[in-house]
Design goal:
The structure is a single chain. By secondary structure, the chain is of the alpha/beta class. 28% of the residues lie in helices and 30% in strands. It has 6 helices and 12 strands. A 9-stranded mixed beta sheet has the order 2-1-3-4-12-11-10-7-8, sandwiched between helices. Strands 5-6-9 form a 3-stranded mixed beta sheet, with no helix packed on it. Helix 1 links the parallel strand 1 and strand 2.
Length: 213
């Protein structure tokens, strides 16, 4: 049975993410310190709230450097919601605060006339990269767009970047799913996205298992 290490650093929606993985048959371990990470199949960074506060919480207990080391070693990693945003170098939400720097670019406030935060179900359209990436290929094969539940005001707005797997629109296009070979992120909440969200998390477990074979 796959094992998930869920980073519990006081700034994420840990309980509902944990329940979603349990529903898929995964074993979940909450991790509060770097030494507790050990060797799971998938390391998961949930996020909820402010970019700067989340980064400060990770840095305070040494988890930020542990995540950077984990990713540098090519091991599977998934960021959820603000967890996706933390993958990048910086955010307009927290000037002067460095992100994890696992992906190039900067998070910016959505430029839209629609109300912020963006809350609710939104279609994610799969890019050419998303149609072949292990994280999203099965979803993309089933339909050209899939609905997921979003809650955010900031996003990665360079929706044409090569590592963008899925794009949503809220007055402007933004990256809703990103991924390299082993570093993945979703702007939406899969744990609140019913069957589509569970399918995405199942794909993450399967992709992680393939990486580690």
């Amino acid at each position: 049975m796959p094992e998930v290490a869920l980073l519990a650093y006081g700034a994420g929606n840990v309980r509902s993410v944990e329940r979603a993985f349990h529903a898929l048959g995964a074993t979940v371990r909450r991790v509060e310190r770097p030494a507790a990470i050990r060797e799971p199949d998938l390391l998961v960074l949930p996020g909820q709230g402010h970019f700067g506060q989340c980064m400060a919480a990770l840095e305070a207990v040494g988890l930020a450097d542990a995540v950077r080391t984990w990713a540098a070693e090519g091991r599977p990693f998934l960021g959820i919601c603000v967890g996706l945003q933390l993958l990048f170098e910086a955010s307009e939400e927290a000037p002067g605060v460095a992100g994890l720097g696992l992906l190039p670019g900067r998070i910016e406030r959505l430029r839209t006339e629609q109300p912020l935060p963006h809350v609710g179900w939104n279609a994610v359209r799969w890019t050419a990269a998303g149609r072949v990436h292990p994280l999203t290929a099965a979803l993309a094969a089933a339909e050209p767009a899939t609905y997921f539940y979003h809650v955010h005001s900031y996003a990665f707005r360079a929706a044409d970047a090569s590592f963008v797997l899925g794009v949503a629109d809220y007055g402007e296009a933004f990256a809703s799913v990103v991924g390299t070979a082993t570093v993945w992120g979703v702007q939406f909440h899969p744990e609140k996205s019913q069957s589509a969200g569970l399918a995405l998390l199942r794909a993450a477990l399967e992709a992680a298992a393939a990486v580690l074979r």
